[in-house]
Amino acid sequence: MELPFSESYKIKMIEPLKRSTREERAAWIEEAKYNLFKLSSDKVFIDLLTDSGTGAMSDRQWAAIMTGDESYAGARSFFELKNRVKELMGFEHFLPTHQGRAAENVLFSVLVKEGNIVPGNSHFDTTKGHIEFRKAKAVDCTIDEAFDTTLDHPFKGNIDLVKLERVYSEYPKEQIPCCVVTVTCNSSGGQPVSIANLKAVYELSQKYGIPVLFDSARFAENAYFVKMREEAYKDWTIKEIVREMYKYADMATMSSKKDGLVNIGGFIALRSEEIYRQACTFNIMFEGYVTYGGMAGRDMAALAVGLDESTEFDYLETRIKQIEYLGNKLIEYGVPIQYPIGGHAIFVDANKILPNVPKEQFRAQTLGVELYVEGGIRGVEIGAILADRDPVTRENRYPKLELLRLAIPRRVYTNNHMDYIAAALKNVFDRRHEITSGVEITWEAPIMRHFTVELKKA
Predict the structure, then answer these.
(1) Domain housing 431
(2) Which of 216, 212, 148, 151 minimizes the C-alpha distance to 182?
(3) What gap in Å lies between CA 333 and CA 348, rounded to an integer?
(4) Residue 94 lies in a domain
(5) Which is catalytic among the residues 51, 140, 160, 215?
(6) Annotated catalytic residue 72
(7) What value, to the nearest 5°, has the Cα angle with vertex 19 and ends 14 and 22?
(8) Which of 73, 150, 375, 405 is deepest in the core (most CB within 10 A)?
C-alpha cells in the first residue's frame, strides 16, 4: 500500500475555539455592520480573514525569541536577520519595518511622486493605496489568463510583456519609479510568477531604465510553484530558486507575517546604496532606528529562523497540499474557484455563485457574510469594495474578478477544519439561487475603505 501524505510537523500546543449558533452569528454580523473585519475574534470559529501574522511559530522560533537582543542600535538580532536576507535574496542593503505596508510607506516615500505611473501585476490593496495616496497611478499589466477562473494556466501571476512595454513606451522613464512584481500575486488568486517571466520583465525594464521591485510576502510559495511547474527548476532546492528569483529584482518589500512565519514584521531590501540612504531617513521618521525599524529584537530573531524554515521543501509541501486539499473538496462540490489552486488561499468566484445579486451590491462581500452566518467562518472580500473608488471620478471600480478569499494560516488548522469549511461553503452554494440581494455602503473611508467600511442589507 502506498503511504498517504502526512504533515511534516507535530502539534505541541493548542488553542480552544468557541462554537456559536446561526442566530448568534446573524446578530453579530449585523452589529459589525456586515464588515467581517469588525467582528471580534471570539465570535469566529475558523478565521480565514488573512494568512498575515496568523500562523503558528516553530520550537526553533520560540527559542530564538528567548535569545533576541533588544539593543536599540546594532542589535545582534538585526545582523542575524540582515545576513539571512542577504544569503537568501542577495541584497546588500536592508531595513527592518514593523510590517509590509510600513515597508511600502518608507520606500514609496523615496520613490513615488504625484503623477507617477507604477505598472505591475494586480497590485495588492496596501500597495495600490500607498501609490494612490501619493496621487500616482497603479497600472495592472497582469496576463489576461489570470481573469478566467476556469483556465488552467501554471503562472497566472505573470506580467504581460506587451502591456508592460506599452506603459514604458507611453511615459518617460522619469515618470515610472519602478515596476512592482508581486510574488505570488495575491489579487489574482495567489497565483505564481515564473522565473522566465521575472527574467523577461527585468530585461525589458533594464532596457527602459526602470527598476524592478518585488512585493515578496509569499516569495517562498512562489519558489515552490516554480519547482513544481517550471521544468528547468524541478531539481533545484527552494533556496536555490529563491536566489535565482531575486537576481531579477533591484529591490524588495516584505510583509514577514506571511512567508517569514512570524506574527509581526517586515523589511526593505535594496541593491542601491543611494535609495537605501534616502529610505533610512523615512525609516527613522516612521518606524524606528535603522537597526530595529519597529521590530523588537526577539521578533527579528524569530524572523531570521522563519525565513530559513519557510524556504525548505518539506514545510512548503505540507503548506501547499493543505490548500490543495480544500480546493479539491470545493471542486468536488462544484463550487467555482480560481484555478489552478493558489499558494496561500482559496479564491471563490462570487460572480459565478451570486449572479442574481447586482454587482453594485458587492457579491463577494455578500458571499463572505453568508459563509460566516452559515458556519462561523471568516473570509475576506477581494472585489469591488477592496477595489475602492476611482481617485479622480470617485465612481466605484468593478474589477474583472469578484472573489472571496479564504486565506489559510500557516501550521494552524487541520484537514478536519478544511472539511468543515468545504461543507459550509457547499451549503451556501446549494442555496445560491435564494440569494438575490446583497449589501450597500452606509459609510466608507476615503482610501482603503474595505478595512473599516460600514454596510447594511440592500
Answers:
(1) 22-51+315-457
(2) 216
(3) 13
(4) yes
(5) 215
(6) yes
(7) 155
(8) 405
- Cis peptide bond N-terminal to 96, omega within 30: no
Please, are residues 130 and 108 in contact by the beta-carbon 8 Å criterion?
yes
Nearest to 320 by CA among 191, 419, 417, 216: 191
**Residue 136 to residues 31, 112, 114, 206, 398, Cα–Cα distance (Å):** 36, 7, 5, 22, 20
DSSP character for 70?
-
pLDDT at 427: 98
Looking at 259, 294, 310, the residue that finishes a domain is 310
- Residues 405-434 have pLDDT tens digits of 999 999 999 999 999 999 999 999 999 999
Cα separation, 150 vs 141, in Å, equals 20
Query: Of 51, 91, 98, 125, which is the active-site residue?
Result: 125
258 is catalytic: yes
**Of residues 64, 103, 217, 345, which has the active-site annotation?**
217
Question: Quick check: is 116 in a domain?
Answer: yes
β-pairing verdict for 266-270 and 117-120: unpaired
Q: Which residues of the chain have pLDDT under 70?
A: none
Please identify which of the residues 227, 258, 344, 417 carries the catalytic annotation: 258
Determine whether 124 is an active site residue: yes
Q: Is 125 a catalytic residue?
A: yes
Tell me which of 272, 288, 310 is where a domain ends.
310
What pLDDT does residue 156 have?
96
Partners of 94 in the β-ladder: 269
* Domain annotation covers residue 205: yes
Question: Which three-class secondary structure state does DSSP give residue 139?
Answer: strand
**β-strand partners of 328:** none
As a whole number of Å, the end-to-end CA separation of the chain is: 55
- In this structure, the number of other CB atoms found within 10 A of the CB of residue 35 comes to 22
The structural domain count of the chain equals 2
SS3 label, residue 442: strand
In this prediction the pTM is 0.95
Give the H or E element holding residue 30: helix 22-31
C-beta of residue 57 within 8 angstroms of C-beta of residue 306: yes
**Domain shared by 379 and 325, yes or no:** yes
The catalytically annotated residue of 45, 94, 124, 372 is 124
